[in-house]
């Protein structure tokens, strides 16, 4: 896939919380307290976020296009889980380490939802997103007009 094939999540009106930093490591446990290991992933690790919606008024200033935020996010989740070749999308990093590189690739961790479960999650604890990497592509190398 090329960079232009990765959709960018419109984060208008969503609330993000950084929930984790994952280190990719290989480990071996030889017993009796003897171990070995090695970092195999990026020294930056992989970040995770929760995405929530605090309120959902149906006023025009709270819509994304013609949809409420919940309907937009539900359709976005469905597209990336069920219809697209890749579940990966571009996300404006809510807490960028480098402001000159504001985008990352990400995916939803939840694989099984119905609209009721989705609403319960997004209006309470939030949907979980995890950072992804795409071989040969940088989430910040794209045409800004494609947003």
Descriptive overview:
The chain has 147 residues and is an alpha+beta fold. The protein has helices spanning 69-83, 115-122; strands at residues 15-22, 25-31, 34-39, 46-52, 89-92, 103-108, 127-132. The protein has a 5-stranded antiparallel β-sheet with strand order 1-4-7-6-5. A two-stranded antiparallel ribbon has the order 2-3. The longest helix has 15 residues, at 69-83. It starts with 14 loop residues before the first strand and ends in a 15-residue tail after the last strand. The mean pLDDT is 86.
The stretches of 5 or more residues where confidence is low (pLDDT under 50) are none
Order of helices and strands: EEEEHEEHE
Structural class: alpha+beta
Number of strands: 7
Average pLDDT for all residues: 86
Ends distance? 17 Å
CA gyration radius, whole angstroms: 18 Å
Roughly what fraction of the amino acids lie in strands?
A: 25-35%
- DSSP helical segment count: 2
Strand order of the largest sheet: 1-4-7-6-5
Percent range of helical residues = 10-25%
Please summarize the sheet with the most strands: 5 strands, antiparallel
Choose one word for the global shape. Answer: globular
């Amino acid at each position: 896939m090329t960079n232009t094939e990765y959709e960018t999540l419109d984060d208008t009106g969503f609330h993000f919380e950084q929930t984790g930093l994952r280190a990719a490591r290989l480990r071996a446990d030889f017993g009796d307290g003897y171990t070995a290991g090695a970092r195999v992933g990026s020294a930056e690790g992989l970040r995770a976020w929760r995405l929530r919606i605090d309120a959902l008024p149906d006023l025009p200033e709270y819509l994304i296009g013609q949809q409420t935020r919940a309907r937009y996010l539900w359709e976005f989740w469905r597209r990336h889980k069920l219809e697209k070749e890749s579940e990966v999308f571009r996300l404006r990093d809510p807490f960028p380490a480098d402001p000159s590189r504001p985008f990352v690739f990400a995916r939803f961790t939840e694989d099984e939802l119905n609209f009721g479960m989705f609403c319960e999650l997004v209006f309470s604890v939030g949907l979980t997103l995890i950072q992804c990497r795409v071989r040969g592509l940088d989430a910040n190398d794209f045409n800004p007009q494609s947003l």
